[in-house]
Design a protein that fits this description.
Elements: H1 4-58, H2 75-86, E1 93-98, E2 123-130, E3 135-142, E4 147-154, H3 159-180
Antiparallel strand pairs: 1-4, 2-3, 3-4
Helix pairs in contact: 2-3
Length: 181
């Protein structure tokens, strides 16, 4: 059996422990309440922000860019364009865009006359010859769906006129053949 003093000491220790447990429990409760209030405020602010952003973007219309639509070029239109580009000098020009011709003389050229006039990725083989009386360009333009064969002859030795006119001639012929396929 325990003496009265020992019982009092035991009660004192147990009461101290109970107070310590009660203090820890109350601190935990206060901490949990604070965390609940902070998380409730954060969720409220977050949801408000989400709805505000949704309402802001709901009025914005987002659409994919549209590719420009080219008007279909008819054979008469391309002939008119070529006649306009060549002008009064038409008797000195011979322009053929055909389905096939002999490609054995054609090669890839570092100084291509027409490669820079065409879209990137187009494969071009060409043969450019210049004589005292004429200049001739034969070219094979390779596309995934088709091949375009061009034969352009200028019956004068003026190289500047030939190159300047080529810069104006090649794009319309190319787009005409691409659209007509």
């Amino acid at each position: 059996m325990l003496t009265k003093i020992e019982l009092n000491q035991k009660k004192a220790k147990s009461s101290e422990q109970l107070d310590l447990v009660d203090t820890i429990t109350s601190d935990d409760k206060i901490h949990k309440k604070r965390m609940f209030v902070i998380s409730a405020i954060s969720i409220t602010i977050g949801l408000s922000l989400v709805f505000w952003i949704y309402r802001s973007f709901k009025t914005v219309s987002i659409s994919l860019p549209q590719m420009p639509k080219f008007a279909a070029i008819s054979k008469n239109d391309i002939n008119t364009d070529i006649s306009t580009i060549i002008g009064k000098d038409s008797q000195n020009w011979e322009i053929n865009y055909v389905d096939k011709f002999d490609t054995s003389k054609l090669k890839y050229s570092q100084n291509s006359l027409i490669k820079d006039l065409l879209p990137l990725g187009v494969d071009v083989k060409e043969n450019y010859t210049q004589t005292d009386t004429a200049q001739t360009l034969q070219a094979l333009i390779t596309l995934p769906q088709q091949n375009i064969y061009l034969s352009i002859k200028y019956r004068l030795p003026d190289q500047n006129t030939f190159k300047t006119t080529l810069q104006k001639l090649i794009p319309p012929i190319y787009w005409f053949k691409v659209q007509s396929s």
